[in-house]
Design goal:
The protein is of the alpha+beta class and 129 residues long. It contains 7 helices and 4 strands, in the order αααββββαααα. The chain folds into 2 domains: 2-60, no CATH class; 78-128, no CATH class.
Length: 129
């Protein structure tokens, strides 16, 4: 692109920056040319001349393929944190003693966390087991 447009590259970048990214992405996905007015000239850019990157909004993880975009909320609620802790405890308890390096019973571990949290975890673990 540099050889073809030379000194117009900064103006093309500026025009792209002021354009609606979603429209540019749709045109590229359909294989259509993007037409830009740059310094009194109409510039046509083919989809393969464009590098289109999507970024996720803060607090989301996103993936795009074949024109579909999927977003996942990555915020951790108290319930998700508890669930993760329970899974980690269960994984550790079910792990052979030779791998976890301790014969410490789970009740002792939960007691060290504090009474209110350990009581909730014990209830959840009993439901899972």
């Amino acid at each position: 692109m540099g050889k073809r447009y030379g000194k117009l590259i900064p103006a093309i970048r500026a025009a792209l920056g002021q354009s609606d990214g979603s429209i540019i992405a749709k045109l590229a996905a359909r294989g259509e040319l993007l037409k830009l007015d740059v310094e009194g000239q109409t510039i046509e850019l083919a989809p393969e001349a464009l590098l289109i990157e999507t970024t996720a909004a803060e607090g989301f993880a996103c993936a795009e393929d074949a024109g579909y975009l999927v977003g996942l909320d990555t915020a951790l609620t108290d319930e998700l944190v508890r669930e993760g802790l329970i899974r980690e405890i269960l994984r550790t308890v079910r792990m052979p003693v030779s791998k976890r390096g301790s014969t410490c019973p789970i009740a002792l571990f939960l007691t060290s966390m504090g009474t209110s949290r350990s009581w909730l975890l014990c209830q959840r673990i009993e439901n899972i087991l």
